[in-house]
Amino acid sequence: MRQRYYSIVNDPYFENGKKQDDCRKIKLCFTLHHFSNSKGERQNGLSTSYLNNLTIGDKITCSISQNTRVLKNPTSPNPKLLIICMGTGVVPFVSILSQIKNLALETQITMFYQCRDDSRTCYYRKFLIDFFTDRSNSSIHLICSRDIAHNTNTSGVITRKGYLKEAL
């Protein structure tokens, strides 16, 4: 199987709020890939099927490279971060937000996140709502293109129906 790249959801160097010396546990988010082969038969992707069939406790061999370009010591006394994403594109940003939380950085964050609905396709909804509710200097705009099941307009969390391009 060829090497594949996936974004890690969690901050792999923290577990249960404690810094770890090495990375032992990672969380991945992926979409099971489906396609039609040359005979018109439906098939699942090789890598995502492999990952989908893993169970808790299974061990895999992988290599992890830490992205050091995203979170640096800010030169500004009031650093700001703008995040714009859709669907599973939220995954690398959840990892970044986890690092910001674990390192107790005072970064002002404005996030625009579009999903189809705020229950089934709003990935990491609870984490995002908790993260932005706890930060007085930051906000998330949850934009749902189809349905809004939960009214989550609270401090730091704005939910609305529509599309990302309209919100920007």
Strands of the biggest beta sheet: in what spatial order? 5-6-7-8
Share in helix: 10-25%
What name does the CATH topology of the domain at 80-167 carry? Rossmann fold
User: pLDDT under 50 segments (min length 5)?
Assistant: none
Number of helices: 4
Main β-sheet, in a few words? 4 strands, parallel
* Structure class: alpha/beta
Mean pLDDT: 81
* Global morphology: globular
**Using only CA atoms, what is the Rg?**
18 Å
H/E element order: EEEEHEHEHEEH
Q: How much of the polypeptide forms β-strand, as a percent range? A: 15-25%
Q: What's the N-to-C terminus distance?
A: 40 Å
CATH architecture annotation of the domain at 80-167: 3-Layer(aba) Sandwich
Report the strand count: 8
Give the CATH level 1 class of the domain at 80-167.
Alpha Beta
CATH fourth-tier homologous superfamily of the domain at 80-167: Nucleotide-binding domain of ferredoxin-NADP reductase (FNR) module
What does it look like?
This protein has 168 residues and is of the alpha/beta class. The protein has a domain at 80-167: 3-Layer(aba) Sandwich (Rossmann fold), CATH 3.40.50.80. Helix content is 19%, strand content 24%. It has 4 helices and 8 strands. The chain has a 4-stranded parallel beta sheet. It has a two-stranded antiparallel ribbon with strand order 1-2. Strands 3-4 form a two-stranded antiparallel ribbon. Strand 5, helix 2 and strand 6 (108-117) form a beta-alpha-beta unit. The longest helix is centred in the middle third of the chain and has 12 residues, at 91-102. The mean pLDDT is 81.
